[in-house]
């Protein structure tokens, strides 16, 4: 990994982070009515994932070529405990829309779960910071930042580059130490001592999602 440090964003000042809603090109292809229904679905996706699945599938019939809906469908299947379907949809979404950011991160997460760590660099076109991945974009939503940093931190941890993994984690902590992605990253790269012992004894391939 010689020279890797120069490819990693070490300062939050390198770009702007937005906490407000940001409209992507795929959102602009959806009607206001559809966007409003998606917001309603997201409010119940945790409490009633089965209903969310039905509603998303209905929207997909009217908007079959939109990766945002596929992304939410994968999440709904996961919330409903239908992990095989969730992974299948996420993989299909990445294969069809490799430029969609959350298709990248969701597929990368699947690769991490299945121990296919070597696939991570290619998913992000061998870019290890957001600015090089999207050079024309100057502002990133916090969800984009946190998702990317979580993947990168875990990736470098898994390949034994612990110092680099900590740099990504420290940036997440600097922005929002209580964010779910920050906490999940900490659990992965800085697990409690008893869990570290178990991981050494039995490995961590059978991670429970």
**How confident overall, as mean pLDDT?**
87
Query: Largest sheet at a glance?
Result: 2 strands, parallel
Residues in helices, as a percent range: 55-70%
Strand order of the largest sheet: 1-2
Portion in beta strands? under 5%
Structural class: mainly alpha
Can you count the helices? 11
User: Which regions have little confidence, pLDDT < 50, spanning 5+ residues?
Assistant: 1-6, 204-209
Shape: globular
How many angstroms does the end-to-end distance come to?
A: 30 Å
Q: What is the H-and-E element order? A: EHHHHHHHEHHHH
Provide the domain count: 2
Cα-atom radius of gyration: 18 Å
Q: What is the number of strand segments?
A: 2
Write a short abstract of this structure.
The chain is mainly alpha-helical. The chain is 61% helix and 3% strand. It folds into two domains: 1-22 and 117-209, no CATH class; 27-99, Serine Threonine Protein Phosphatase 5, Tetratricopeptide repeat.
Tell me about this structure.
The protein has 209 residues and is mainly alpha-helical. It has two domains: 1-22 and 117-209, no CATH class; 27-99, Serine Threonine Protein Phosphatase 5, Tetratricopeptide repeat. The protein is built from eleven helices and two strands, in the order βαααααααβαααα. The protein has helices spanning 32-44, 49-62, 67-79, 83-96, 101-113, 120-123, 130-133, 142-158, 162-176, 180-189, 193-202; strands at residues 16-18, 139-141. The chain has a two-stranded parallel sheet with strand order 1-2. Helix 3 packs antiparallel against helix 4 (83-96) and helix 8 (142-158) runs antiparallel to helix 9 (162-176). The longest helix has 17 residues, at 142-158. Residues 1-6 and 204-209 have low confidence and may be disordered.
């Amino acid at each position: 990994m010689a020279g890797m440090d120069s490819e990693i964003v070490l300062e939050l000042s390198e770009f702007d982070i937005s906490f407000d809603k940001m409209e992507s090109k795929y959102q602009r292809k959806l009607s206001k009515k559809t966007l409003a229904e998606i917001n309603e679905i997201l409010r119940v996706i945790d409490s009633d994932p089965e209903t969310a699945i039905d509603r998303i599938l209905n929207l997909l019939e009217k908007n079959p070529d939109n990766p945002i809906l596929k992304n939410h469908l994968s999440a709904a299947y996961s919330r409903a405990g239908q992990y095989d379907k969730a992974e299948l949809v996420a993989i299909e979404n990445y294969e069809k829309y490799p430029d969609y950011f959350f298709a990248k991160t969701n597929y990368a997460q699947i690769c991490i779960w299945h121990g296919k760590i070597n696939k991570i660099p290619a998913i992000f076109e061998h870019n290890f910071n957001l600015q090089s991945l999207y050079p024309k974009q100057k502002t990133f939503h916090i969800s984009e930042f946190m998702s990317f940093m979580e993947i990168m931190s875990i990736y470098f941890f898994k390949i034994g580059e612990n110092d680099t993994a900590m740099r990504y984690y420290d940036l997440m902590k600097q922005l929002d130490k209580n964010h779910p992605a920050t906490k999940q990253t900490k659990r992965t790269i800085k697990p409690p001592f008893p869990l570290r012992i178990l991981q050494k004894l039995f490995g961590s391939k059978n991670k429970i999602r």
